[in-house]
# Entry
Amino acid sequence: EEEHIWRYHKHEMQEYQCGSILIKRINAPVQLVWSLVRRFDQPQGYKRFIQSCTVNGDGKVGSIRNVNVVTGLPATSSTERLEILDEEEHIFSYRILGGDHRLKNYWSIITLHSEMINGRPGTLAIESYVVDTPEGNSKEDTCFFVETVIKCNLKSLADVSERLALQTSVEHLTL
Ligand code: A8S
# Structure
């Protein structure tokens, strides 16, 4: 765990920025979790705050997506660029270019690591981010907001993955 963080989640953080790292254990194989995380064109596959998404580009690094957020949040849309898509190491990173919200220069990275959980193949998901502290907000409030969003995302990533893993194992059952 600490080694993964040290390797992939070292951010250069400036005085006016804030950031942190969140970790989630998922009871599903890393390939299955990765199949959801890697879809830059379909974040709404597991992120519940995203209503729709359109991509300009081929879905490779450098592609730009425009996401619309569900109602009830202090935001409506966001423009984001795919920075890293490493299919071998399971590293996914995107950066926010703009949009109607307060997260300027948001940069995030999520890495997946296979791990045995209770004797079964599981996944350790580690997500970290850095963002400019918006004018008039404290670092604490900004981190709290972003961490709330990421915790929800990791929770639903786990829920969706675990449901899919269960479906697959049921299909393999011969009764
Ligand atoms: C992510 C992480 C975050 C997304 C934030 C922090 C966002 O989609 C939401 C509300 C906002 O105010 C900003 O990887 C923005 O999803 C839910 C629109 C960017």
